[in-house]
Amino acid sequence: MHPEDLHALAARLGVSIRIAPAGADGRLRLDVRPRPALALGPTVDDDALRALATDPLRALFSFHTLPSLRRHLRELLPEHMVPSSYVVLDTLPRTPSGKIDRRALPPPDDARPDLEAEYVAPRNTTEELLCELFAQALVVDRVGIHDGFFDLGGASMSSVQVAVAARAAGLPLAPDLLFQFPTVAELAAILDQSRAEAVAAQ
């Protein structure tokens, strides 16, 4: 019998076979084993299967690669141009013509970005007010005193927004101070010192 005929016969009988040479004269050895029963369910595509599993490499990428990417961009770009939020995607959404579909890109959430500085809560009223103003202007859930304004997504327009709100609350904040002292801790120290000098001069 031809080996292909043996495979066809094995498929009809529901067994699995393995054919191997049994000697130099051309004889073959035939191993026959019962085929295990398979519980076949409905066909599921790859995307549906991915939704049922976790991707451990995604966490490693976010933990190791994103901070390195942020440091690299800081060497190339001014501080206020470094992106504050990074969204990891499996694939980029595309239009029917093959271009990137910008409208389909998911927006970053309003959680505090994954920054190198650990979150530290405000220690006094000035820091508490600045943290609140930063969070409102940049639409993040919380701001720590060592979080940089531009690391959180700040830009020229949002710095003006923070300055206006700070003045309304009694803090003499100029927008350019945010470029010189981008963290809440630095900015609060400068503002407190300025107010203390103003009181002493009266």
Overall pLDDT level: 78
Strand share of the residues?
5-15%
- Indicate the CATH topology of the largest domain: Non-ribosomal Peptide Synthetase Peptidyl Carrier Protein, Chain A
The oligomerization state is single chain
Number of helices: 7
Count structural domains. Answer: 3
Helix content: 40-55%
Please outline the major beta sheet: 2 strands, antiparallel
How does this structure look, described?
The protein is mostly helical and 202 residues long. It folds into three domains: 3-34, no CATH class; 54-104, no CATH class; 125-201, Non-ribosomal Peptide Synthetase Peptidyl Carrier Protein, Chain A. Helices cover 44% and strands 7% of the residues. A two-stranded antiparallel ribbon has the order 1-2. The longest helix has 21 residues, at 56-76. It is rod-shaped. It starts with a helix and ends with a helix.
What are its keywords?
7 helices, 7% strand, two-stranded antiparallel ribbon, 202 residues, rod-shaped, mainly alpha, single chain, Non-ribosomal Peptide Synthetase Peptidyl Carrier Protein, Chain A
